[in-house]
Amino acid sequence: MGIIGVVAALTIPTIIQNSNSKKFSSQFKKTISTLSQASIMSQAQYDSDYSSLNTTSSSESCAEESLAKSNLTMCGLLNSTLSGHTFLGMYGTAKGANARSIYTVAKKVLPDNALSTDNTMIFGLADGTIVGFNKNATNCSVMPGTPMTAEILNGALANCIGFIDVNGPNPPNKEVTCDTPEYTTLDPTTSCAVKKAVSDVFPIVFHNGTVQPASNAANVVLSPGGKLTPAEQEAQRIARRRQFDKWEAKTLSRGLTKEECEALPASYGIKNCRPGGDDYWAAAVKECGGVQNLPTVDDLYEFAKTLYPNCNNGNCSGDINRNKIPSGISDDPSSFNKIHIWSSNEIRGDCSYYWYIHSGGAARDYYCDRTHSHVKVVCLGDL
Q1: What ranges do the domains of the chain cover?
Q2: Nearest residue to 216 via CA among 181, 173, 167
Q3: Are strands 249-250 and 375-378 parallel, antiparallel or unpaired?
Q4: 82 or 2: which carries more pLDDT confidence?
């Protein structure tokens, strides 16, 4: 019995630790996907994502803020697209699921402003997970495809760093670290091994249309062995599509007849062909080999954001920055005047969205008569 007791004392803690590590890792992956989906839904419904936030959240009004009320705050975005959540208050005073009045975290590399009683707001999810974010999270934007480095996290995205505590206010309330804790850093690109115990708190960063790990330890937990999750794969595809310096606009010589349009494979993704033919949007889809190879309306909006000083709710204004116009869009950016570009988004009937970009602004619009030969096509493919 004594031997059995010794063996149990040695093995049971390890079994529990391994079980908790798997549970914490799985919940982290689920939550980071949920937060990314919230931004994707926000972009689809309100034409706003984490890069669109321009106003500080308020603890007094957080629970009531929403994008429908034009509250471009983190509270407004999460309230609008994140289901089953509750605003718990400010970090350090928030009441958790087990009614603890003080909630704190043992940090390793999370910056002070990501665990501040003055700045950090706490949301509780239906499954008991806690999400913390800075109330000053605004303009959470980087150029697509930019590696997430310590320089960016401590600079442009400093106020966009938060955390996920997959175990809520319950212990251990400790930030995940590398097996050698000293190697843990606020830089997802640096090497790290996490083969031992996984703790319950993960640093994250909100930006553009996604949420990703903000530390190397959290990054390894999300993608062990360098494998990408479906959400990360989609984020990489979006980043490749938005390599704007590689964009080239083409002019179509003619539109497709109704018969030519209907003869295209179903995989091309065309829902409706123009009854009268001369369909230039269908010709654009054929030119690029399917709607999946055209820019989406969101891609075109992100492109417009690189050109104009003021962009909000799907419209841009101000003098265009001609230095950022890709050479494939205009051979001589200094003389650029205007351009219309088809998107991949077909709406009701035979209507399709395009973007109108000119020297003084840009906006999304649509043609229900797709006979417009002046609209250009940009074929991006899945690079």
Answers
A1: 19-241, 244-378
A2: 181
A3: antiparallel
A4: 82
